[in-house]
């Protein structure tokens, strides 16, 4: 896709976009098909940051991408995959709900014994871990991240922040 950036002598320079990666599909029904389709359409967040519009429906896309990477590419077990998908949904929900940004970025990485998921947005406002009461109907996102992730945090960037979590996983 050509962007609006002028190159040498006024020529248009291509804007880098995440490339779709096609992976073999595992048998698993419609949910796996939807996850594979999301990966093909949006790109692979384990290869390059995937930018998504800051809209509530992007949480579903981010969940599908996380499922496709965690289960399909990394072969994580069902429980770890479900936890990772849930926590992605919570971080994305916070980015959509609280930052006022047009887009956010999703990135996933695996290293020996760990996975790391990052959600980047242009806001420098820090998320707050609030106490949760039994009858609360909202505000549980970071509480869940704090309980299910082995580590989590926020890194301030020159233009925004990166909210991340890490989970221990079996080595390959």
From TrEMBL:
<keyword id="KW-0418">Kinase</keyword>
<dbReference type="InterPro" id="IPR003594">
    <property type="entry name" value="HATPase_dom"/>
</dbReference>
<dbReference type="GO" id="GO:0004674">
    <property type="term" value="F:protein serine/threonine kinase activity"/>
</dbReference>
<keyword id="KW-0723">Serine/threonine-protein kinase</keyword>
<protein>
    <recommendedName>
        <fullName>Histidine kinase/HSP90-like ATPase domain-containing protein</fullName>
    </recommendedName>
</protein>
<dbReference type="Pfam" id="PF13581">
    <property type="entry name" value="HATPase_c_2"/>
</dbReference>
<dbReference type="InterPro" id="IPR036890">
    <property type="entry name" value="HATPase_C_sf"/>
</dbReference>
<keyword id="KW-0808">Transferase</keyword>
<feature type="compositionally biased region" description="Polar residues">
    <location>
        <begin position="10"/>
        <end position="20"/>
    </location>
</feature>
<dbReference type="InterPro" id="IPR050267">
    <property type="entry name" value="Anti-sigma-factor_SerPK"/>
</dbReference>
<feature type="region of interest" description="Disordered">
    <location>
        <begin position="1"/>
        <end position="33"/>
    </location>
</feature>
<feature type="domain" description="Histidine kinase/HSP90-like ATPase">
    <location>
        <begin position="52"/>
        <end position="165"/>
    </location>
</feature>
């Amino acid at each position: 896709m050509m962007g609006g950036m002028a190159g040498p002598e006024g020529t248009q320079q291509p804007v880098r976009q995440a490339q779709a990666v096609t992976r073999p599909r595992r048998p698993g029904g419609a949910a796996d098909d939807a996850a594979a389709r999301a990966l093909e359409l949006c790109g692979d967040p384990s290869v390059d940051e995937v930018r998504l519009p800051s809209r509530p429906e992007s949480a579903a896309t981010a969940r599908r991408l996380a499922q496709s990477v965690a289960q399909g590419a990394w072969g994580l077990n069902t429980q770890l995959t479900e936890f990772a998908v849930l926590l992605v949904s919570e971080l994305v929900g916070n980015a959509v709900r609280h930052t006022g940004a047009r887009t956010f970025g999703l990135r996933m990485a695996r290293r020996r014994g760990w996975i790391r998921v990052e959600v980047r947005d242009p806001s420098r406002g820090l998320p707050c871990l609030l106490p949760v009461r039994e009858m609360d109907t909202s505000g549980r996102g970071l509480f869940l991240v704090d309980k299910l992730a082995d580590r989590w945090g926020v890194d301030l960037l020159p233009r925004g922040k990166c909210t991340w979590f890490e989970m221990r996983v079996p080595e390959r």
